[in-house]
Amino acid sequence: MTSTASATPERYWDDAREGDSCLSPEYAVTEARINAYAELTGDFTPVHVDEAYAKTTPFGTRVAHGLFGLSIADGLKTQSDYRFVPGMSLGWTWDFLLPIRIDDVVRVRFTVGTMRLSKSRPGWGIVVLPSELINQHGEVVQRGEHRLMIPRRPGTF
């Protein structure tokens, strides 16, 4: 998909279809961004911020925080051509499969997995988005599902 996210209309729950999928724009994981994430969260675990220490680990170098990867995936979804009208996140299940290294370039691929009407909020629907964070080598470094409650199109319920 080549158009910019800002030129793409946001979708209501009613506009989505199971099986719809999207590949996000790219995101470069830099040393500065890893350091900024450490500052933001207060997570200064040495494998993320101390190269001398990180060389002694099985990774052999500094790696990004696992939750930074999840945060990147979530942010990339909002920049994608396939976006929803703002709703509510109901939660994530997420697995860290491979390290994310400095200078990796990642993208998120997500699919509309399942859809149902909300039982507790009329006018809303729930979507489950199976998602994969993929590096420049095509390796899935993280994956999981995001559950979202999305508004229905006004006048359709």
From TrEMBL:
The signal peptide annotation in the UniProt record is none
Q: Output the SUPFAM superfamilies linked to this UniProt entry.
A: Thioesterase/thiol ester dehydrase-isomerase (SSF54637)
Q: Which Pfam families would you find in this protein's record?
A: MaoC_dehydratas (PF01575)
The residue ranges of the MaoC-like domain are 24-119
Q: Which InterPro entries match?
A: HotDog_dom_sf, MaoC-like_dom, MCH/BMMD
Put simply, this protein is called: MaoC family dehydratase
